[in-house]
Amino acid sequence: MGLGSGTVIWLFAIVVVIQSCLFTVSAKKIYIVRMKHHQKPISYSTYSGWYADHLQSLTSATPDSLLYTYEAAYNGFAVALDPEEAESLRQSDSVLGVYEDTLYNLHTTRTPEFLGLERELGLWAGHPPQELNQASQDVIVGVLDTGVWPESKSFNDVGMPAVPSGWRGQCEVAADFDPKINCNKKLIGARFFSRGYNMASGGKELPSPRDHDGHGTHTASTAAGSYVANASLLGYAAGTARGMATHARVATYKVCWKTGCFGSDILAGMERAILDGVDVLSLSLGGGSVPYYRDTIAIGAFAAMEKGILVSCSAGNSGPAKATLANVAPWIMTVGAGTLDRDFPAIATLGNGEKFSGVSLYSGKGMGEKLLGLIYNKGGNSSSNLCLAGSLDPTIVRGKVVVCDRGISARVEKGAVVRDAGGVGMILANTATTGEELVADSHLLPAMAVGRKVGDIIRKYVETDKNPTAVLGFGGTVLNVKPSPVVAAFSSRGPNMVTPQILKPDVIGPGVNILAAWSEAVGPTGLEQDTRKTKFNIVSGTSMSCPHISGLAALLKAAHPDWSPSAIKSALMTTAYTLDNTNYPLRDAADNSFANPWAHGSGHVDPRKALSPGLVYDITPEQYIMFLCSLDYTIEHIQTIVKRPNITCSGKFTDPSQLNYPSFSVLFGKSRVARYSRELTNVGAARSIYQVTVQAPQNVVVTVKPSRLFFRNVGDKQRYTVTFVSRKGINQLGRNAFGSISWKNAQHLVKSPVAFSWTHL
């Protein structure tokens, strides 16, 4: 089975440090070595030559042991060593650090219309839409994932001009991939990186840029796929499929394989993407919360940011639990997931006449109208309620509809277990963990998902009725669902555990039941027994929301080629919205409560407004270094991230919160007062005036000075200071609250969320 398995957990798992049991080829482990590159002797013409000689002088490593050398994304190399050899490297004066490789995992349409991109009319204020389309043709989106299915119509290059002259990438040859046939003026790059995977697992997959999983094709086409008419998943979500930046170019970097995505391969992919000349990097994968100097993605993203490349990453699928975020570095765009205003309804009719709604993408022969026996948790197996493999008794299940609790195993796998045991239908019922969130799946038998409340009613009916029966019906595709968007229950939540002073996630985007291109090497469920083939698939996860934002960043880069990654990120954040299509605050799918910025960040992206934000919070690489210097990191740790030999931290922020970030995370500790400064840059009209508006909880007093900002010219910068005071006499320890600071005029609203936490008395 590939990486895809049809459950949200399938798309994301917490970081796992590679243990020696993974290394079936040898007892060696993979290490990423950070060198003091400025110490390279002048006798060496290349870093790779110095690295190889230095390695051999201290270890018994052979040339084959050196997997990668890095220069653009990192100063160092990846190598297979035994632990004793790694320790001898650590003792070298030329080595900054030696770190075990890390295994990351994937964070596994109506979207353009939902985002207001359906016509692209008036999208770019003051410019006809064809100008933005033309400018987008010079923007290149790099996608690090499971590769690409190049035959998909989403990568059609009809009408596209020649490849940008500055492009330095290429499509690589493989047994199943011919660049002359498989690449074109749309798909302009396709590479693969498997040395870490090969060393760890023995390389049981064909080395190729081709996608045998589906995930990479889905994310690449979501970001920048061409228009494809009559797209659907077996009839569901029928219509025109398109990416966010339909005229941008795509370059794919296959770094994920059956066992996951190895840090050494990811870093090599980021290195190559930087050298190739991408403008945006999209990574729908991640690990857990670790210091930035141990985070391969954060290190590669810093180098990319310094080159003017915006890096967009998925936040993870470990919600609704708090403090579950991945990819939280402030120079990364951290993307959570929300729903669309589209649904795929199904109805369960019980023998007592009650009807309950759920969702499904089942596309086979229906069940008809006859009520059939309904069972739940029958038999002696303790896991039969979860419908795990081998847990169902065929003599009990045959010919019946089975209720299965969601959790532990993949949603679609449960359906396969029911089918293999002779069941004819399945009701997949949520538990307290997943609440009311509904994710549709292309099941192998008639099946539907229901929320926890409905699930509890159905479970009680089965347990109390003498002859429980049910029949399932399927209702196709429904649009204009209200309320929407809703924050997905699976979307990982703050607070940020690496640097609590930075509010994460940054934004949410569409990530539930997303239609996009798919690999024809695998069925829509990803299960081995699923022999169906489809050109498009509907899947969910922050893996899906991330490329939406990557594509929108490409549009902003086309419209504003001189903007920094931080300016693009600020525009997407400060123009995001926090009211749904019923004009109420965004809700949380987990329990239908109102969501907060730990769930949705600045809000749901609004690309039309982001193209003309009025003001932006810009951040230079030097300011990010000042931020790093304010953390409890050694100079060596900071040099691991920044790659500069002369860092002294003589200039640093007194507090990480002083970074010019477009949101605020206020920690009240021993002091009841917190004071921060921010700087806004005018990217709107000359002679613009903005007035501040503050929303704050009753127990916090917020003062902003000045309360009015005047920008005489385009590009002018103005600073303001905000003071937060926690009121006396109220014990808030362990609590949190939320507010916002907005700068407004007749044309623009530049809004920043504020999170308040009380950590000490």
Summarize the structure.
One of its GO terms (biological process) is proteolysis. The chain is 21% helix and 27% strand.
N- to C-terminal distance? 52 Å
Regarding quaternary structure, how should these chains be classified? single chain
Count the E strands: 40
State the helix count.
Answer: 19
What helical percentage do the residues reach?
10-25%
**How is the largest sheet built, in terms of strand order?**
8-11-7-14-16-17-28
Largest sheet: 7 strands, parallel
Report on the architecture of this protein.
One of its GO terms (molecular function) is serine-type endopeptidase activity. Residues 385-457 form the PA domain. Keywords: Hydrolase, Membrane, Protease, Serine protease, Signal, Transmembrane, Transmembrane helix. The strands form 10 sheets. Strands 8-11-7-14-16-17-28 form a 7-stranded parallel β-sheet, sandwiched between helices. A 7-stranded mixed β-sheet has the order 20-19-25-21-22-23-24, sandwiched between helices. The chain starts with 7 loop residues before the first helix and ends with a strand. It is globular, with a radius of gyration of 26 Å. A hairpin with a 4-residue loop joins strand 19 (345-350) and strand 20 (355-359). It is built from 19 helices and 40 strands. Helix 5 packs across helix 14 and helix 9 packs parallel to helix 10 (296-306). It has 761 residues and is of the alpha/beta class.
Offer a few descriptive terms.
single chain; 761 residues; alpha/beta; seven-stranded parallel beta sheet; disordered N terminus; Peptidase_S8_Ser-AS
Which helices and strands appear, and what pairs or packs with what?
Blueprint lengths: L7 H4 L4 E2 L11 E7 L11 H12 L7 E5 L5 E6 L1 H8 L4 E6 L1 E5 L4 H4 L14 H8 L3 E6 L33 H4 L4 E6 L2 H7 L13 H10 L3 E6 L2 E6 L7 E6 L1 E2 L2 E3 H14 L3 E4 L1 E2 L9 H11 L3 E5 L18 E6 L3 E2 L1 E6 L4 E5 L12 E5 L17 H4 L3 E5 L5 H10 L4 E5 L17 E4 L1 H13 L4 E6 L3 E2 L6 E2 L19 E4 L3 E4 L18 E4 L2 H18 L5 H10 L12 E2 L8 H4 L6 H4 L4 E2 L4 H9 L5 H8 L21 E5 L4 E10 L5 E8 L4 E6 L2 E4 L5 E10 L9 E9 L4 E10 L3
Parallel strand pairs: 7-11, 7-14, 8-11, 14-16, 16-17, 17-28, 21-22, 22-23, 23-24, 27-31, 33-40
Antiparallel strand pairs: 1-6, 2-4, 2-5, 3-4, 6-13, 6-15, 9-10, 12-13, 18-26, 19-20, 19-25, 21-25, 29-30, 32-34, 34-38, 35-37, 35-39, 36-38, 39-40
